[in-house]
Amino acid sequence: MVSSVGTTTASTSLLSQAIAAAKSNAAANAASASSSTSTSASSSSSSLSSLGGNFNQFLTLLTTQLQHQDPSNPTSTDSFTAELAQFAGVQQQVETNTNLTSLISATQDNQMASAVSLIGKTTTASSSSLPLQSGSASLSFTAPQAEDVAIAVTDSTGTVVKSETVNVSAGTNTWTWDGKNNSGTQLSDGAYTVAVEGSSTDGTSVSLPTTITGTVTGVSKGITGVNIDMGDATIDMSDLTGFSTT
Known about the structure:
- The protein is α+β, with helices and mostly antiparallel strands.
- It has helices at 9-68, 77-115; strands at residues 2-4, 122-126, 129-132, 137-143, 147-154, 160-168, 171-177, 190-199, 205-207, 210-215, 218-221, 226-230, 233-236, 240-244.
- The protein is elongated, with a radius of gyration of 27 Å.
């Protein structure tokens, strides 16, 4: 059960921490979204380019050695065999990297094809990315005890748009946001970031992980696999915890 509470020194402190955490999460989410695709592509390209460079360099050194060796004192059979083995090893690694890249791409394509069936379904995910869809957003979190917790929501720029302190019961609690900011203005649907701060049984402030709920609107490739789109919010498929048709 969640209900609003009045302002106290303790709740003000929790709210400040929630706001700081929400801003930090927003910055992290923005950085991850902007670099995911480019990082994946550049990393794979860089590794293959490095191996390819080693392969060509080794080949150049080997052929140069053969051209300039003393005919009366050629490289020993053992040494030459070892060099050929190294040459073959580098060549095999280049081919392995190329095939592995193709395999990863094929796996992601298969995952995307499977994930298409989720479109239109209500999905839950362990994430701080909060999708505002049709003017509403919902999340759940687990409180270690009946207490006051602070909830803060920021937009994509890290600006706090909604913050409040609520009283919750021990265990799982659900919080629904009507999409209005602290001034009562209805905000546009989109991707927001949320943070929840509470207290442990010994009174220490703790960040409470959130499970968000949203409707799947699409799928896309990400740096580590397939992403699920909930409106403008993007969630890694591995973070999904469940889904339903309603």
